[in-house]
Amino acid sequence: MDYATFLQILDTTVRLATPLLLACLAGLYSERAGVFDIGLEGKMLMAAMTSAAVAALTGSVWVGLAAGILGALLFALVHGLASITFRGNQLISGVALNFVASGITVLIAQDLFGQGGRTPPLSGGARFNAISLPFVDSLSVVPILGPMYREVISGHTFLVYVAAALVPATWWLLYRTRFGLRLRAVGENPASVDTAGVSVIRLRFTAVLITGVLCGLAGAYMSTGLQAGFGREMTAGRGYIALAALIFAKWRPWQALGATMLFGFFQALALRPDVIAKTGLSIPVPALDALPYILTVVVLAGIVGKAIPPRAGGEPYVKER
Amino acid sequence: MMQKLPTWADVVLVPLISLLLAAFVSALVLLAIGQSPSEALKVMVEGALVSPYGWGYTLYYATSFIFTGLAVTIAYHAGLFNIGAEGQAQLGGLGVALVCLALPWPHWTLALPAAMVGAALFGAAWAAIPAYLQAKRGSHIVITTIMFNYIASALLIYILVEVLRPDGQMDPASARFPAGTKLPTLHEIPGLSLIFTKQVPANVTLFIALAACVVIWAILWRTRLGYEIRAFGKSEAAARYAGISPVKVTMIAMLISGALAGLMAINNVMGESERLLQNASEGAGFIGIAVALMGRNHPLGVLLAALLFGFLYQGGAELGLWTSIPIELRTVVQGLVILFTGALDQMVRMMLGVVFRTRRPQAA
User: Fold this and answer.
1) What is the pTM of this model?
2) What span, in angstroms and rounded, lies between the C-alpha atoms of A321 and A169?
3) Residues contacting residue B190 through CB under 8 Å, at least 6 positions apart
4) In terms of residue numbers, what domain contains B223?
């Protein structure tokens, strides 16, 4: 594999890792607050549809982005209602919302556009376009790093850079602010937070809504950045890969970046069978597809370090009376 | 605050009201996209319940859902949420295909038991790894079974494309099974052929599914093992104190669960498509979740809920054929049923509690 091909694959890695990263960080907030969310997939799908549909109707990707966030927030709200207010089973709620999203996105898109559950292809101002970072041309002459800067770092869409910025932001919020301390505490020991006079319900709802916003970004990126329009089931299990990455990262933001980059790299490699063939190894494409899931099981099995979820995760909080 | 409802209300009213709520929200969705809910219901009932031909499809779907519903049920009684029935059903299909293609079977009565063993073994094997990891390493079974669903689908794509696909065939599918493995459909069974005058996909597997309901009921409520499973599901600490081995119960409950999900494949792979296709289970494993929740995790309830979802599936297909309502409506209804019966059940109970509280003073 020559350097140019390597850079191409890295570039694809960044593109494909972005929705995983956004969804993974989304899940991080909710699960750190003690609310399991296997409904990342559904929220992403919903956001992908609403953002592409509204972008197609208004011609503005920014209005589309707002609609995507609203679509995902709606689902996050139902999840919060079921798992916080009514203390229902968080896992079942997530599964249910994934099914609802899978069906309802097609129903709405079909009703709006009549194109078999797809939105019309987006172009121009209705989708995010590549941003060229400063000094790309002048730095190109620098060996190794110059082309790397031009091919891999520069030339992505707005939401890719937002996702990258959210990693340190999330770290700072979680570990350097009072809100973050409380958020982590409510996922480990909600009774102690309650004793300190802080509302468990409000904290958890805040976390679940942040999850909704980030899933909204992830979904909007899928249909208006990565691709130009919505298609049925377009998230194709990315919500679950993000969940796998979250476990792989042991619910920590920087590690989430690493895990999603790794899984994005597998996806990018799976798109280039020619490159794999050239290495002389015969790795079947399905094996690459399955690799994130297999790695997650390995981590869950405690073979490579133990993944211990937030202790109060999945448990509805009942105030003592 | 948590007033107890009478048992009959909890068993009958809670699922019924959940179903009504799901139907109500679905109707709102239909209205929102400019369709008529009553017209949709009419098409569904006519397509799925009026003619024997429609029933032939409804019962075919219901057969698959009974298996996956029972699979989720038995795991649920052990306190395990098996989302992996889909992957286990896919592997069951592989087991059926390997058995059916292995020998030139002379008659289906010989092929069926062998295929059942293949289906159950492969399904159970696929459940065994998550079960072991849960029992021994404490890895959360929900996450591992989700992962195993994806690994199963990748594995099947590989096997269908690289191993089982006959030379010269384009689509990723196995060769056709020998004629001796063909299961009689309801149209070909003497007596029933008077009702089912046309060829229908529902086949003898239906009777195996009904038998499975009885067997699972007997295991859960009439054997020591069933007692251990239910005790473990209710309270792990109490069960452990009573000398019940958590490893044993987790493993056995999940193996039975996987075997049941795998057995579904004799209905769709052996009974209907007669070769192994990609994604043969078509989401039936996930519908098992809805069926088990709707059926209150009792085999009789599972049977009724499976019929309901059989109707929903056949009716939904008819909607896709005859109206402009997309077939995906059934996924929405499925999700809503899971939501109301499994996650918002507390809300339904609170609503019912209000009714029962206001009724009681009048009765006294």
Assistant:
1) 0.90
2) 38
3) none
4) 62-300
